[in-house]
Structure formats: structure tokens, C-alpha cells
Design goal:
Number of domains: 2
Structural class: alpha+beta
Order of helices and strands: EEEEHH
Radius of gyration: 18 Å
Strand order of the largest sheet: 1-2
Shape: elongated
Helix content: 10-25%
Largest sheet: 2 strands, antiparallel
CATH superfamily of the largest domain: Urease metallochaperone UreE, N-terminal domain
CATH topology of the largest domain: HSP40/DNAj peptide-binding domain
Strand content: 15-25%
Distance between the termini: 27 Å
Number of strands: 4
Number of helices: 2
CATH architecture of the largest domain: Sandwich
Length: about 90
């Protein structure tokens, strides 16, 4: 669904928009937010790598909601061969 997150930067926390469908491992570039350039004007780019936190403990209600989501989702919802829940299960194996 996308979100906005605060990431640490040299001048303090910076708000970054993560677009819907962004996959884990995607690198977002914040132009001009990185280190100052040596002997030149301006600053480099700050790279932000998207990392997804996978829940390790689910309540019964959360588990039921995820099962309902799986039933309502078709394979066309995802990129790749495995379903979301197949990939999620592989994380816990």
C-alpha cells in the first residue's frame, strides 16, 4: 500500500516515500542527501535499501486475516512463481 518512513540522514531524519509494490532489497536514491564531495560543490546521493520486517508471532485474529487475504488474492497479484504465503513460509523454514 506504500508508506512514508523516516530515515537517518546527515542533516537529521528525512521522510522517504516508499511506493506501493516496492520489493525487499530495492534501493531508493535520495539525491544530494549524501556526503559532501571532496574539493567540489554539492553532495553525493544517499542510498536507502528497503528491508521488510516479517512478523514472527501472530495472534489468532492476525493469522485468520492473513488466510482471508491469501484466499482473496490471485497469483496475478504477485511477481514471481511462488505465492506470497509460499515465500513467507520459506522464511520460517
Amino acid at each position: 500500500m506504500g508508506t512514508e518512513v523516516e530515515v537517518p540522514a546527515l542533516d537529521g531524519p528525512t521522510l522517504v516515500r516508499v511506493e506501493p509494490g516496492t520489493q525487499p532489497g530495492t534501493t531508493l536514491t535520495l539525491r544530494g542527501e549524501g556526503m559532501p564531495r571532496l574539493r567540489r560543490r554539492g553532495r553525493g546521493d544517499l542510498k536507502v535499501v528497503v528491508d521488510v520486517m516479517v512478523p514472527t508471532r501472530l495472534s489468532g485474529e492476525q493469522r485468520e486475516l492473513l488466510k482471508r487475504f491469501e484466499a482473496a488474492s490471485g497469483e496475478e497479484t504477485y511477481n514471481g512463481g511462488d505465492s506470497f504465503f509460499d515465500r513467507l513460509r520459506s522464511v520460517f523454514r
